[in-house]
Amino acid sequence: MSPSGFGRAAPKPRRSFATVDLVVDLGSRIGTGEWFRGLGTLGALIGGTIWLAPGIEPLTVPVPAAMASAQYDEMRSLSIAPIAYGADTGRRLAPTDRAQPLTSTPERPELDIQSAIGLGDGLARVLEREGAAHDDAVKAASLVAGAVPLSDIAAGTRLAITLGRRPSRAADRPLDALTFRARFDLALSLTRVNGALTLRRQPIAVDDTPMRLTGAIGTSLYEAERNAGASPSVVADYIKAIAPRMPIDDIMASDRFDMAFEHRRAATGEVQTGRLLYAGIVHQGETLRLARWTLGGREQWFDASGEGERRDGFTMPVSGARMSSGFGMRFHPILGFSRMHQGVDLAAPYGTPIVAAADGVVRFAGWHGGHGNFVQLAHDGGMGTGYGHMSRFIVRPGEAVQQGELIGYVGSTGLSTGPHCHFEVYRGGQVIDPASASFEMTQRIGGGALAKFKAMMGRLAGLPVGGGAQTARAKVLAKG
User: Fold this and answer.
1) What global pTM score does this model have?
2) What CA–CA distance (Å, rounded) separates 322 from 134?
3) pLDDT digits over 269-324, tens only?
4) Are the beta carbons of 202 and 188 closer than 8 angstroms?
């Protein structure tokens, strides 16, 4: 049996509004009925949009008139322009018929200048550099030199300079006034009176009584002295003075320090602090007192009994020298036989400096047979040294010399085969091997000098604590 409807065409599907494609792709199926329907739809949409569009009229806005030149300048005076554009903004006076150009810019009738004297500078040079006339600068320096040496004016001294009106631009300004502190105790003022510079001295009262400080050491010697009012340099001097006599590590918190140092206070209020003069310490009930004193041309610390610093050993008299011959018996290269060599030979180039091996006094300086030019020094503790074959010496008998001080130059005078220094060491008048000599030197104050030293130490130790500058009399150090 054949299926129902076999051999007949299938019925066409019914189309509804929902199946109509309203958005037709006009890029495909061109020329078909569907394409024309889409084109008609597009035209209808465009036409409806045009028909429904409202009418838009342009708005009329009033345009301001162009600014006049004066208005433009006023606007710019109140505006801000970048520096890249010249930054020429800001209120200005516009030129008028009453404005007349100046032939030259006006000058101030006086100039007040603050200056300072530099290191290695001169007073006249500073004044000229600031614009003062050459003659006035030289005259001012001459007047100041009559009151105080110009070399005494410290670098950094501030100068208050007043320069007056000059007759023309080609001339330097006259010096009308100069005021400065020439010294701690003296101020100077120069003023122009009836066309001439005059100098006025202003002495300043200064109390130069040393300042004394004392107190318990506690946890730190440095902090205790700084808290008491001592400067760092004074504390450093104190430690240097005490350390050779008492190790710092041995100092205890219960110990007490005592010091006196240079202290100057001007009537104007300025204060100057100088060197340490007296150093004392109470350690476990025992008191150590030291004071500065100059003996034999050398300043050092001495204790209350007048005993100075202990110094061990001596300095080799020729730096960098080579020992060409030692102490003892040897064959003499010139005499041709063996004999005792009472020192050591230090070979060095001709003219090499020879210095004192230790502090002492020149006992002999002159020609000494085979030693040629010879210098002999006497030291404390019965010690002595000798220096031979010098090309020349620069000391005289009786002269005090310090360790390391120049006494002559290496040469080859006397019985010598080449430039060197013959160096001898004596103990109790007998020569000893310099290589084995390690002697201790201690200077001691004696006689009338010891009484003066003890009196000075008593004055320093008896100063009022922290009040020396207020209780001592003030005195004027410069004459008016």
Assistant:
1) 0.52
2) 59
3) 889 899 999 999 999 888 999 999 887 667 888 888 888 776 656 778 888 778 88
4) yes
